[in-house]
Structure formats: C-alpha cells, structure tokens
Design brief:
The protein is mostly helical. The protein has helices at residues 21-40, 48-69, 74-101, 112-123, 127-130, 139-171, 174-250. Helix 3 (74-101) packs antiparallel against helix 6 (139-171).
C-alpha cells in the first residue's frame, strides 16, 4: 500500500544553512579572523593565530554539520549548534584579549564609530559586504567588528536553538518520530484491512448474483439456439423437398 500524506515522517526537511543570517555572518567572521591573523599575528611566534582560525572555523563548520544532522536527529543538531556557540565565544575572548593586551580601544555605545559599526553589522550579512575592508581596517577595527558580529550571531543562534528546543519537546527525537511513523503506518494498514474485510461479504454477494444472472442468460441462450437450429433445419428440409418435387415435374 502506498504511503499517504497523513503518515508521519521520520526525516525532517534539510535546512538551507546558506540562507540563514547567522551562518552568513559566521562565514564573515571566519574570513575576517583569517585575514586578521594574516595581517596582525605572526605566523610562527604566536600560537593564538591557530587558535583564532580554528575557533572561527569550528563555529562555521559545526553550524553546517548541525543543520545537516538535523535531518535525522534534532538532539545532535542542538549539540552541534551549541558547540558552534562555544567556539564562537572562545573566538570573542581571543579578540577581546588582543584589544586588552595591546591597549587598544573597545568601541562603546554613544560613539559615532560604534553606531556605524552596529548598523553595518546588523544589516549586512554576506562576505562580499565585508571583504573589501579586510585590507583597510586597523587591528582595532577588525577586533571590534568581530566582537559585534559575535553578539549578532550568538543572539540569532539562541533564537534558533529555542525554536529547535520547542520542536524537540513537542515532536521528540528520531526514535519518537520513527515510532510515530511506524505506528501510523501500521494503523493505516489495520484500517485498510478492516475496510477490505467489511467489503468482502458485499462483493461475494454481488459475485453470486452475477453468477446466477449469467446462468439464467446461459439457459436462455441455449433455448434460443435450439429454436434457431430447429427453424434452420426445418427450412433446409423444406427447400430440399421442393427441389425434389420440381425435378420430378420436369421429367
């Protein structure tokens, strides 16, 4: 029996992570971190370089893996997205430590540069919006933009995680969906079986009536056939007799 649209599904729809703003911003912050390290952190003398790049990469990649795993497991999706948040928080700490250790300035509310940065990060999500500035910004600017992007990404991810949490509470995980799907399928089979069993006596009665009607038509056909044959042979015998009479008269 074909599966109907009412049958619960085990697998969820694949999320298009490239369309999610927090993923787009995580791609920006990864590329920003890479450019920042290339410009301001020594390739061999400072191990912070690898830590910054790996933390930024871990955030972006765990978002992708988490959303991909969400097709089957909401639980795994929640775990991996939280790993992404943890990596992002580590990255924020590295940028804040850089500012503090170099005696640079945090952009603070009330400053024109803070308002400009906040508005730009709020309304721009794609890498192409930021990449042209990577070679122009100072290390102070890059750190502040990275920290601001962190706050936006973290808030967006928390909102997304709360939505997933509610889905997990109401729908359950993969095991619950598998159970519901299997139970729903078996229920449909049981209902179909009951329907067929209820229809069977009526179909059997209809068949018996059709067979009885066919038997009546068969008897009628045989009677008609016998009358037609009797008429045919009678006419044939009459024709033969007339021909014989005509032949005797000619003699």
């Amino acid at each position: 029996m074909a599966e109907t649209s009412n049958t619960p599904h085990v697998l969820k729809s694949q999320a298009n992570w490239d369309a999610l703003y927090f993923y787009q911003k995580s791609d920006v912050i990864y590329q920003l971190a890479f450019a920042f390290c290339d410009r301001f952190i020594h390739l061999y003398k400072d191990r912070t370089r690898d830590q910054v790049i790996q933390a930024a990469r871990s955030c972006k990649q765990n978002i992708v893996e988490g959303l991909a795993d969400g097709v089957a497991s909401t639980e795994m999706q929640l775990k991996l997205l939280n790993v992404a948040r943890a990596s992002l928080k580590e990255l924020r700490e590295d940028f804040e430590d850089y500012i503090k250790s170099r005696h640079l300035q945090f952009f603070i509310s009330g400053e024109p540069r803070y308002a400009d940065m906040l508005n730009y990060c709020r309304y721009h999500n794609r890498l192409s919006d930021y990449e042209p500035f990577f070679a122009q910004w100072t290390d102070e600017q890059m750190c502040n933009y990275a920290i601001t992007l962190y706050h936006f990404i973290d808030r967006m991810m928390m909102s997304f995680l709360k939505k997933l949490e509610q889905e997990f509470i109401t729908e359950g995980g993969i095991k619950e969906r598998m159970h519901r799907a299997r139970t729903g399928y078996r229920h449909q089979q049981d209902e179909r079986l009951k329907q067929l069993e209820a229809e069977l006596p009526r179909l059997k009665q209809s068949l018996a009536e059709a067979q009885a009607e066919a038997a009546k038509w068969k008897v009628a056909f045989e009677n008609l056939k016998q009358r037609a044959l009797k008429m045919y042979y009678g006419k044939e015998e009459e024709i033969k007799r007339l021909k014989e009479q005509l032949g005797e008269e000619k003699l």
